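Board notes (copied after class):
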Amino acid sequence: MDRNSFVGLLLIGAILIGWMYWSMPSKEEIAKRKRIQDSVITVQKEMEAHRQMTAKATDANNAVIKADSSITLSDSAKAVIRESQYGMFSGAAQGENKTITLENELIKVTLQSLGGRVASVELKNYKTNTGKPLILFDADSSFQTIQFIAQSKGLTTDSLYFLPEGNSSFVKEGDSAKVVLRLYAGDKSKYIEYIYGLNGNSYLLNYKINVVGLQNIIASNTSDITLKWGMKTLSQEKSIKNERNTSTIYYKYAEEDVDYIKETADEKKSLDAKLKWVAFKQQFFSSVLIAESAFEKPTDIESIKEKTSEKYVKSFTAQLSIPYNHLANEGFAMKFYFGPNQYKTLKSYDIGLEKQVPLGWGIFGWVNRLIVIPIFDFLNSFNLNFGIVILILTLVIKACLFPIAYKTYMSSAKMRVLKPEIEVINKKFGTTEPMKKQQAMMELYRKTGINPLSGCIPVLLQMPILFALFRFFPASIELRQQGFLWAKDLSTYDSIWDFGYVPIINSIYGDHVSLFTLLMTVSTILYTYSNSQLMGGDGMMGGGNTQMPNMKWMMYAFPFIFMGVLNNYSAGLSYYYFLANMITFGQTALMRRFVDENAIRSKIEENKKKPPKVSKFQQRLEQMTKDRQAQIRNKK
């Protein structure tokens, strides 16, 4: 060992001795530790004495005695237990659970000091189906907490008491000022802070989490804080079955579009991407948590049906990640949306919340967004009864579709004129020579200049509107609790007779009779019959009954199938279909009166004398027929 090594060892030894001396606890700290150890020993002795006493009482009296009913712990013992469980947050482990009320013209939000959470929300302009105040969730059916590790202890804020700061008061009504709640960690320089405030006269509640002075208390390997939020949604509507079939969790990725859990599924998802917002969607209302920037990944969400409850619809849970960078003071800003699923209102926030309104996919959604909703909102601006609004909407839609209806009628009129000749072809070839019969039909169509599909295409063009309205009416909150005639609520079924439980019938039809659905079914059957007579008794253009004999009965079966489906749907939807059928009756009667079939027959006869015009479609169809005949000959 040389001189330098020897000096180095001496210096290291001196440093170790100095560090040990410097880190030695003071007399006050030694005394405090001794008091804690004595308190722990006292608690252990008290618990052991209590256990022995309970065991003796059980043996003697065969009774179970609760531990907290036979012994009273000293205040110092309780303090030791709290400190061992909550560490520096032990001072917030006891307190009084007080409430704060924030209120504007639209919503009433109740906050609680225990957990500093949003305990309940009331929508002031809406009522439940039974006329009671509409509460989205209450303190017993919801939770909101953050989880983190501090001093090697896993902590959750839902068991700790927050304190109001500044001008915050536990009676704050009609004031949209900020409410500041703090959860202290020992002294007032270390705390978790919640800031709430109504965002003007809207359905938004500002919510911000600040973490101050905890950079050395929260575990150093922690990169995010977990925010857990969940609720059991309360039943608000007439049909809890419809509520369950339309309630789910929606979410929007920070860089992508909106997605959701299927409404009929009980499902848990782990999303490995940043999120902009998470929504607990009910049939007509939603509770949404929106990040100002984005929630970090991952996010866990879960949707479960409350199958055994008539009070709760579904149980929703979201576990979100909030970034934490161990700074002396850092915050994460968010907003809550507590309000109706009204397309116009949700769209005004411009973050994709309107995607929660199920208007249909693809072209059906575009028809609703670009045509139906603008017309509906315009008519609604006149403050008319919604039964009248639906009537005018139906008239407008049928008027716009009239050229298509006219085209369809003219095509059927031409086919009626050709019906005698078509029947001759059917009798000549029967079912034994289908290819020759098809060739003869195509030759007849070519000579007369008639396209047999010209009546089908206009019908197909009407289908997007038909299906778009099938999605629009059940999702329209505007119809909620709006009455018309005998229907008290156009957003749900209009029962005129509740016949109760009947096996099999309940699963197929329901436990009630909806009058608008019944009227829609009768009008559809009458329309089918009338159209059948107009076509010559079979309802198929061109005497199609010999080719598809079962089609006639299928056409009469469809109205009964829809009756079973629509019996539990929106009365507004059945009312629209009923009106559409009746207006179609009127249009058909007018066209039949003013369209001269003799003129059509004369035009067809003229076409027969002219050289036939063969369209590309007819050419392809004829070529396909010839190819098919060649295949049959080759097989033979």
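Comment from the instructor: The two ends are 109 Å apart (CA to CA). The longest helix spans residues 27-61.
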